[in-house]
Write a structure and sequence with these properties.
It comes from Occultella aeris. With 268 residues, the chain is of the alpha/beta class. The chain has a domain of 183 residues: Rossmann fold (3-Layer(aba) Sandwich), CATH 3.40.50.450. The protein has eight helices and ten strands. It has a seven-stranded parallel beta sheet with strand order 7-6-5-4-8-9-10, with helices on both faces. Strands 1-2-3 form a three-stranded antiparallel beta sheet, with no helix packed on it. Helix 4 links the parallel strand 5 and strand 6. Helix 3 runs parallel beside helix 4 and helix 3 packs parallel to helix 8. The termini are far apart.
Length: 268
């Protein structure tokens, strides 16, 4: 509820306004007025609620998904392109390992991966995005969630996956790749395996990172170790699995050590 302490200090919920920023109407007055237009749906406070709703919807849909691996790549590849087939092979190995497959839900590599997961009898997840120039959710998605906002969607890719496998792609693929690399490099996310498939495709990028960024000191040489490069879909999946096995062993050892220390201290 909006309250006015004096004309120089106006409180609107948790916000304090002064001078010319003091509104002409209280929040309650605006709420109870007859609706004369629909402009309110375009205002930033309403957008916050809509953003919140997207997170709630995504969390609710994926909370019980279980272990999963996200697969990225270009939407522009066709079903007869080798990358489409490769994505399906990757997804098949992911399902065989007991994991669900998460993609952006669109065409190209995403469709290839969703198709591979679906045909292998696994859970095929698509996290779609509202774009004016791209098709909707592909037909092989078993569990699909559509997002308006990239940042809400990107949160789901990381939160509900235990690793990224990245096939050749464009700006969107690079965006997801560097988002994940930044999260791991800054330890916002720990031990999150990232695998690039396609040594020829990624070679130029790796060389640039090594010969420009490392040489100029904008990243460290060991930052390149955050990525693994291969042409083998089975190896790509195994890299993710091995990283997660190592992480679980370390977590178990740490828990056991903590329990041992607590036992040695005895009851208070």
């Amino acid at each position: 509820m909006s309250t006015t302490n004096n004309r120089g200090n106006y409180r609107k919920g948790p916000v304090r306004l002064r001078g010319k920023l003091i509104p002409e109407k209280t929040t309650d007055e605006s709420l109870l007025e007859p609706a004369e237009s629909v402009d309110w749906v375009h205002m930033d406070p309403w957008r916050v609620m809509r953003i919140q709703a997207e997170f709630v919807e995504g969390f609710g849909a994926l909370a019980e998904l279980g272990p999963a691996i996200s697969v990225f790549g270009s939407a522009r590849f066709k079903p007869d392109d080798p990358e489409y087939t490769l994505a399906g092979e990757v997804a098949g190995h992911i399902v065989d390992a007991g994991y669900a497959v998460i993609t952006g839900g669109g065409p190209g590599v995403m469709e290839g991966a969703n198709k591979g997961a679906h045909e292998a009898g696994g859970t095929s997840v698509g996290l779609g995005i509202e774009l004016p120039f791209e098709q909707g959710m592909n037909e092989y998605v078993d569990l699909g969630v559509n997002f308006r906002y990239f940042f809400a969607r990107k949160t789901m890719f990381v939160k509900y996956a235990e690793g990224f496998i990245v096939l050749p792609g464009g700006f969107g693929t690079l965006d997801e790749l560097f988002e994940a690399l930044t999260l791991v490099q800054t330890t916002k996310v720990k031990r999150f395996p990232i695998v690039l498939i396609g040594t020829t495709f990624w070679a130029g990028l790796i060389d640039w990172l090594k010969n420009t960024l490392v040489e100029r000191g904008t990243i460290s040489s060991h930052d390149l170790d955050l990525m693994h490069l291969t042409d083998d879909p089975r190896e790509a999946v195994e890299i993710v699995l091995n990283a997660n096995r190592s992480r679980r062993r370390e977590e178990l050892a740490a828990a056991q050590a903590a329990a041992s220390r607590a036992g040695a201290m005895g009851p208070e």
